[in-house]
Amino acid sequence: MFQIDVLSRKPVYEQIVSQMERFVLTGVLAPGAQLPSVRSLSVDLAINPNTIQRAYTELDRKGVICSVPGKGCFVSESAVKVLSEIKREKLVDLKELVWEMKLAGVTLDELLLLIHEVYEEKEVLRA
Q1: CA 16 to CA 4: how far, in whole Å?
Q2: At what angle do helices 49-62 and 12-25 cross, to 10 degrees?
Q3: Phi-psi region of 123 (alpha: psi -120 to 50; beta: other; left: phi over 0)
Q4: How far is the CA of 54 from the CAs of 17, 35, 64, 118, in angstroms?
Q5: How far is CA 3 from the centre of its chain?
Q6: Cα–Cα distance, 2 to 21 (Å, whole number)
Q7: What is the pTM of this model?
Q8: 109: Cβ contacts below 8 Å, ≥ 6 apart
Q9: pLDDT at position 1, please?
Q10: pLDDT tens across 44-90, in order?
Q11: How far is CA 92 from the centre of its chain?
Q12: Which residues pair with 75 in a beta bridge?
């Protein structure tokens, strides 16, 4: 399920957080779904359990997952809404990037073509 790139500059816990968010947004993990335990996921991925715990803590802080003592961690019922709001906040950054592209001579047609390519892509689970 998870694909960890040990050569990436992105920390492993951030890779797990990003992939978990993508799984939730694409419906791979539905609200209420139980997540693998920290121990089992650390064994499966061959990484330190503290790294998994850090990722789970971050997801819990964001409201994407919730921990139920004695039961485990579950995708929260509001996970999709929470993640959608977080992603929408990035529109400000996108606007700045588009402005920079405009100054660099990138045409509106080039940007629109790229946007259409992304929205028409079949592979939704990109890293």
Answers
A1: 8
A2: 50
A3: beta
A4: 9, 14, 14, 31
A5: 12
A6: 12
A7: 0.81
A8: none
A9: 84
A10: 999 999 999 999 999 999 999 999 999 999 999 999 999 999 999 99
A11: 19
A12: 65
